[in-house]
Amino acid sequence: MSEGNIAGDALRLYVERIERLTEERKGISDDIRDVYAELKANSFDTKTVRACIRLRAQERHARQEAQALLETYGAQLGLFD
Amino acid sequence: MSEGNIAGDALRLYVERIERLTEERKGISDDIRDVYAELKANSFDTKTVRACIRLRAQERHARQEAQALLETYGAQLGLFD
Amino acid sequence: MSEGNIAGDALRLYVERIERLTEERKGISDDIRDVYAELKANSFDTKTVRACIRLRAQERHARQEAQALLETYGAQLGLFD
Amino acid sequence: MSEGNIAGDALRLYVERIERLTEERKGISDDIRDVYAELKANSFDTKTVRACIRLRAQERHARQEAQALLETYGAQLGLFD
DNA sequence: ACGTTTGCGCTTTAGC
DNA sequence: GCTAAAGCGCAAACGT
User: Residue D53, exposed/middle/buried by CB under 10 A (0-12, 13-18, 19+)?
Assistant: First the structure.
């Protein structure tokens, strides 16, 4: 058969794309790890920095929620018409 | 003070680097998600593909572990001295 | 009130069950530690033994995963209907 | 050779003992998991219960430390002579 | 859409 | 004291 196993090839392609992306993601995780190692070497406390970042993410998230709520209300009140 | 809060600046820089990297990583996760969506749209079964990838990763990992074990044995037997 | 704080009692019971089990688990961990100490005292290399066990566990796990994958494929192909 | 591979046998024995113990430990972990599932089914909040248990462990630990400190001081002061 | 279940990242602990 | 592995908690993913 000249066409080969087309479905199998497609599957292989997908699997490889995902594995490639997963590897990239792993690389970034390693980079993050390195940054933590670096700041630790400069006498910062890793745990505290992690807490800071978590907090900032939460606040960012809360802000987005508040914004979304505002827009919902605004739409209800016809402010954007 | 012309130097500002140096430690604070350094911390801010680290935090921002980490946040940037985390964002990138998130982007890649989204890409992976997209690939799954795409293959699903092409009639592949997501769960099966995930299982394939997981299995491949495990086998890869087991192979590495086996290799490491061999080296440990070798070291024990003084093969590398 | 003759019934006492029922919910509180139930909670206390759960907490104590969990603490008891956790303690048991800790005991077993200590036993494992002792076995390693014993084999070390008999001139075995701890690191190597750990590597062996890890490898065996991985292979066992990979085998199970492979089996699960087969079954997933089978289900996809309607082999069990 | 009538004696077989003695060192190998001893190793196998150790490995099996450890694997057995590890399995038991795993079983207990599963039991704990079950308890959490059960209390969750009875409308308790898993996360809160975990927090309680952690807190109790900490307090127990703190009490032991305080006790140890007291004994150290006591010994210094010749209270137990 | 929700609840359950599994996978993944972080935290913590143990070994070196 | 640091690195690496194991256990735990969370969050996304699957099934209902």
Answer: middle
In terms of pLDDT, which residue wins out, A37 or A68?
A37
pTM of the model: 0.86
And the tokens for D40? 């969750």
Per residue in B7-60, pLDDT tens? 889 999 999 999 999 999 999 999 999 999 999 999 999 999 999 999 999 999
Q: Distance between CA atoms of D56 and D64, rounded to whole angstroms? A: 12
Instruction: List the single residue in B with minimal CA-CA distance to A49.
Output: B15
Cα D26 to Cα C67: distance, rounded to the nearest angstrom: 21
In tens, the pLDDT along C7-62 reads 778 888 999 999 999 999 999 999 999 999 999 999 999 999 999 999 999 999 99
Would the pLDDT of D4 be above 90? no
B28 to A24: CB separation less than 8 angstroms, yes or no: yes
**Beta carbon pairs, C and D, within 8 Å:** 72
Whether residue C45 contacts residue D15, with contact meaning beta carbons closer than 8 Å, is answered with no
Using CB atoms, list chains with 3+ pairs below 8 Å to chain C.
B, D
Contact, D54 CB vs strand F, < 7 Å: yes
Under an 8 A CB cutoff, do C44 and D10 touch? yes
The neighbour count for residue A71, using CB atoms within 10 Å, is 12
Q: Do chains C and D touch (3 or more CB pairs under 8 A)?
A: yes
Closest nucleotide to C25: CA versus each C1': F7
Q: Considering chain A, what is the average pLDDT of its residues?
A: 90
What does pLDDT average to over chain B?
A: 91
> In the structure encoding, which two tokens stand for residue C57, read together?
């566990």
B60 CB inside 7 Å of strand E: no
Asked if residues D65 and D58 have their Cβ atoms less than 8 Å apart, the reply is no
